């Protein structure tokens, strides 16, 4: 592993994206999102995902000239077609529209269909909470996880994010419906490490901590076993129904890579609709204080709220340079 300054990483990613055909403005936004993702510790969807994105652009699976088009507007809700455009830019647009609708209606819901991979879903939850809005957003994916009781992938792991703005540190949860994302498996495998807990089944159907065995079998473990499986199925259906887009079963048929043609939901809510800022902050601090006072399992450990470790990782990577896999970095430099 190596460490790379934020500015250098963003500049190199931007160069590669401009070479792939993106405009200066498109490349700047995408490069920043990828770099911020790695800076925040989500290496799998930051630097590591750049070669795959450029490959999809070169294959024509991502239309770099497409922008979202409004299908229907209904009060606090809007429906857009992403037209297979750049997933990051489509998701940024949808997040901003949800925020604008929430400013007018206290809640804004944008349903986006026919889009492409948004990379780190937490990006958009952080965007909303940084603007003072509670955020809920999720995406469906192609089949990449067996439903509980199945041997083969037949549901998506459908990443889900929820965030609450807080004066002393925003609270943001960013999770897939699998115990680990495939990106996390890749990062762990590249480091020649084992997962801390079983993350799926090997080809013999045995639970394993070995990321390579899970990647090979494609039998990744749903979060909470049958519960994560059920959540994944419902998140898929709701995203497709609200956007009038494709569920996982249809995404599988078009075969345009990870999340090609996916459906996404972006919700922004004014957290002070029914309470003052002081009242809401008191609610949040009560919970945070209780977590902080809980006795940790291991000596010297700490019980954290969602997003707390992200802030610490961000600080470390800003100070010391962003952790990067040397092989992937060299691949990007040669694009």
How would you describe this structure to a colleague?
With 335 residues, the chain is an alpha+beta fold. Helices cover 44% and strands 17% of the residues. It is built from twelve helices and twelve strands. It is globular.
> What is the residue-mean pLDDT, rounded to a whole number?
97
* Number of DSSP helical runs: 12
In CATH terms, the superfamily of the largest domain is Malate/L-lactate/L-sulpholactate dehydrogenase, NADPH binding domain
| CATH arch. level architecture of the largest domain | 2-Layer Sandwich
GO molecular function: 3-dehydro-L-gulonate 2-dehydrogenase activity
EC number: 1.1.1.130
Protein name: 3-dehydro-L-gulonate 2-dehydrogenase
Pfam family, one: Ldh_2
Give keywords.
3-dehydro-L-gulonate 2-dehydrogenase activity; seven-stranded mixed beta sheet; Malate/L-lactate_DH-like; 335 residues; globular; alpha+beta; EC 1.1.1.130; single chain; three-stranded antiparallel beta sheet; Hypothetical Oxidoreductase Yiak, Chain: A, domain 1; Ribosomal Protein S8, Chain: A, domain 1; Mal/L-sulf/L-lact_DH-like_NADP; 17% strand; 3-dehydro-L-gulonate 2-dehydrogenase
Quick structural summary:
The protein has three domains: 1-58 and 322-332, Orthogonal Bundle (Hypothetical Oxidoreductase Yiak, Chain: A, domain 1); 67-177 and 221-267, 2-Layer Sandwich (Ribosomal Protein S8, Chain: A, domain 1); 275-302.
